[in-house]
Amino acid sequence: MTTDHTRYNVEGILLARPFKIRRLGHFGVDLHDLEAGLRFYVQDLGFRITDVLDLGRIPPLAKLVDGVDDARLYFTSHGSDHHSLL
After folding, report:
1. What is residue 60's three-state secondary structure?
2. Residue partners of 69: CB distance under 8 A and separation at least 6
3. pTM (two decimals)
């Protein structure tokens, strides 16, 4: 058996491997077809909508979404993870 002695710099800490992914949290996806996307993530994959945030109703952010048809963000959860997909 060979041993790999390569070290990876992970925010200033040298590790034998950079990381092991166990879950994703607050992962965001931009959708061109919001209805189809929500149908896929909620109905097909089983995510639950936990919060909805309308960026157009937040004065400091309203200019950022000017011209956007639907400026809502849908926060979803799956299993015990809170807000796992945005």
Report:
1. helix
2. none
3. 0.65
